[in-house]
Q: What sequence folds into this?
């Protein structure tokens, strides 16, 4: 997916100005950045909810699913009905039920099909929203802080579930978070946003397969330290100062 020369402002506040990045297809890309930098705005533009004033987003598909921070389930529908709902115009009732049930079993909710959202824990509700997102076999999956508010064990379980579903369906994933640990747990490419308008402060590629990361803590520590430093920088340095530094770095490279 290519985000090309994007410009977006809320009133006179420029969030993106002539902004371009490339998101590799079929991979997991995390976008890290401090609160208010513009991460959600970018996801909303990718989803087509917001339109950029200039520029374009070139996608290979419009089959997009969005997982939000809060699960956004329909409270009057049961777990299985919440998942079937997104298949309404795609297949008949019998087939919807079978496919929704299979996906709910996959996310570990096979015994909660007929419960209502208020009868579930926060982690279970997020699993329903993950099932709802994957049941349409999205080619693009957008995640906006999906682990917010979950305890450390639940976070890890849901990270593992997301990675396992991604391995099965291989959508192009754009995952936004404030949390370096979330990014290290799931992403092959991590982009740190900073400034206003948004600038890419760093672009990090992790070649280590996700499943091997817990057995190579020293290797991952180097990425952790680097990303923590970048996150610290993103909240400390005014944008024009950052641009000066970048230009100096550029000059030093060329010299
Ligand atoms: N509808 C809106 N009207 C005006 N300003 C907005 C609107 N939505 C967002 N903003 C502002 O635009 C900036 C970017 O918002 P956005 O939600 O994209 O940031 P974010 O990086 O996702 O932040 P967070 O991590 O806190 O969700 C913020 O300063 C926000 O206050």
A:
């Amino acid at each position: 997916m290519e985000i090309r020369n994007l410009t977006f402002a809320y009133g006179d506040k420029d969030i993106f100005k002539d902004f371009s990045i490339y998101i590799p297809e079929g991979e997991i890309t995390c976008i890290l950045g401090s609160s208010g930098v513009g991460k959600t705005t970018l996801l909303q533009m990718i989803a087509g909810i917001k339109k950029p004033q200039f520029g374009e987003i070139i996608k290979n598909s419009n089959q997009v699913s969005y997982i939000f921070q809060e699960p956004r389930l329909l409270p009057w529908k049961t777990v299985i009905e919440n998942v079937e709902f997104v298949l309404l115009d795609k297949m008949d009732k019998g087939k919807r039920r079978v496919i929704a049930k299979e996906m709910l079993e996959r996310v570990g909710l096979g015994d909660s099909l007929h419960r209502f959202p208020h009868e579930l824990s926060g982690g279970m509700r997020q699993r329903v929203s993950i099932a709802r997102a994957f049941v349409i076999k999205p080619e693009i999956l957008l995640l906006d802080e999906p682990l917010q508010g979950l305890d450390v064990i639940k976070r890890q379980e849901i990270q593992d579930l997301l990675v396992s579903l991604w391995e099965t369906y291989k959508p192009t994933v754009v995952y936004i978070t404030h949390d370096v640990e979330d990014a290290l747990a799931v992403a092959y490419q991590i982009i740190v946003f900073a400034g206003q308008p948004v600038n890419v402060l760093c672009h990090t590629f992790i070649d280590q397969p996700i499943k091997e990361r817990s057995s190579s803590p020293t290797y991952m520590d180097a990425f952790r330290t680097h990303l923590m430093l970048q996150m610290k920088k993103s909240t400390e340095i005014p944008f024009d100062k950052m641009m000066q530094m970048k230009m100096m770095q550029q000059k030093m490279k060329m010299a």
Q: What stands out?
A: The helical segments are 39-47, 79-84, 93-106, 122-134, 152-169, 180-186, 217-236, 239-254. The CA atoms of residues 166 and 173 lie 8 Å apart. The radius of gyration is 19 Å.
